[in-house]
């Protein structure tokens, strides 16, 4: 498996099926800001209330060949083996990225277990060997990934820009960040001392120079 983070902003993605598993996949796609269409004759209550809020489009029908044409990515989450196989075949023919929820052999990509903290994304997968284990590892890692990381990444985006104006070369910036952004900073973030961590880095940027 080769890890990539797909950029889905507003890209047309389709989910075939509207059960509990489809719900999990739809939530993931919406978290990535995809434009989601669901094709299914019926959907769960939870999904229906999301549909009523306008979170995705719903084509209320059973899948037929041709239904996923034009989509960038497709997820097939029905309980019908024959439909899963046909959706995968259409995706292959049309060159659409496909995930069939319980059939790695029909997939172009598999879903990992996901932790999001703002723009921080941490994922866990087992090459399909044990999804339950991917889930448990995700739950374990969640304990260490503090909510403070999300606002601090926003702060870091600003500090990074400042460093670019002060520290001239890529090589020096690389060296700078590797020595400045250490475990003490991460500890401050975990303790909620975001301002203190920011000041420490800003001081290091302003004192950067041949003499330092
Ligand atoms: C990570 C996660 C993401 C997500 O779904 O978004 C995910 N499965 C999750 C949970 C989960 N899935 C299953 C159980 C029951 C226990 C068990 O069987 O282990 C549990 C645990 C639970 O729900 O407690 C059943 C299951 N899943 C697959 C098969 C088929 C097979 O193995 O042949 C079967 C057997 C069906 C059957 O027996 O009928 C296949 C896949 N499931 C994957 C992803 C892909 C590989 C990921 C990897 O590399 O590990 C892959 C290959 C394809 C795909 O779906 O992309 C999500 C955790 C999210 C979270 O909580 O964070
Ligand atoms: N990968 C995973 O993580 C995982 C975990 C558990 C189960 N599964 C498998 O995923 C499948 C779906 O599970 P579920 O619990 O969501 O099932 P479900 O029965 O709740 O939902 C199935 C959905 O598929 C839709 N559907 C059925 N035929 C269709 C068709 N011809 N066209 C469009 N939609 C159609 C139904 O309307 C329903 O919304 C099952 O086969 C299950 O074995 C996968």
From TrEMBL:
Residues 149-204 form the Sirohaem synthase dimerisation domain. It holds the Pfam family Sirohm_synth_M. Pathway: Porphyrin-containing compound metabolism; siroheme biosynthesis; sirohydrochlorin from precorrin-2: step 1/1. GO terms for molecular function: precorrin-2 dehydrogenase activity; sirohydrochlorin ferrochelatase activity. It catalyses: precorrin-2 + NAD(+) = sirohydrochlorin + NADH + 2 H(+). Keywords: Lyase, NAD, Oxidoreductase, Porphyrin biosynthesis. It comes from Pectinatus haikarae. Its EC number is 1.3.1.76. The keyword Cytoplasm does not apply. This is precorrin-2 dehydrogenase. InterPro entries: Met8-like, NAD(P)-bd_dom_sf, SirC_C, Sirohaem_synthase_central, Sirohaem_synthase_dimer_dom, Sirohaem_synthase_N. Residues 125-143 form the Siroheme synthase central domain.
């Amino acid at each position: 498996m080769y890890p990539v983070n797909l950029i889905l902003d507003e890209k047309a993605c389709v989910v075939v099926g509207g059960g509990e598993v489809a719900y999990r996949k739809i939530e993931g796609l919406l978290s990535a800001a995809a434009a989601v269409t669901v094709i299914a004759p019926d959907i769960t209550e939870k999904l229906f209330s999301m549909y009523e809020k306008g979170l995705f489009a719903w084509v209320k029908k059973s899948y037929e060949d041709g239904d996923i044409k034009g989509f960038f990515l497709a997820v097939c989450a029905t309980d019908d083996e024959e439909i899963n196989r046909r959706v995968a075949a259409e995706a292959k023919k049309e060159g659409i990225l496909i995930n069939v929820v319980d059939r790695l052999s029909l997939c172009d990509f598999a879903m990992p277990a996901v932790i999001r903290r703002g723009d921080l994304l941490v994922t866990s997968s087992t090459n399909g060997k044990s999804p339950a284990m991917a889930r448990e590892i995700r739950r374990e890692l969640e304990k260490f990934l503090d909510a403070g990381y999300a606002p601090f990444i926003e702060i870091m985006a600003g500090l990074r820009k400042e460093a670019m104006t002060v520290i001239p070369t890529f090589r020096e910036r690389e060296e700078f960040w590797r020595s400045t952004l250490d475990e003490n900073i991460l500890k401050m973030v975990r303790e909620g001392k975001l301002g203190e961590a920011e000041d420490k880095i800003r001081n290091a940027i302003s004192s950067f120079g041949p003499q330092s």
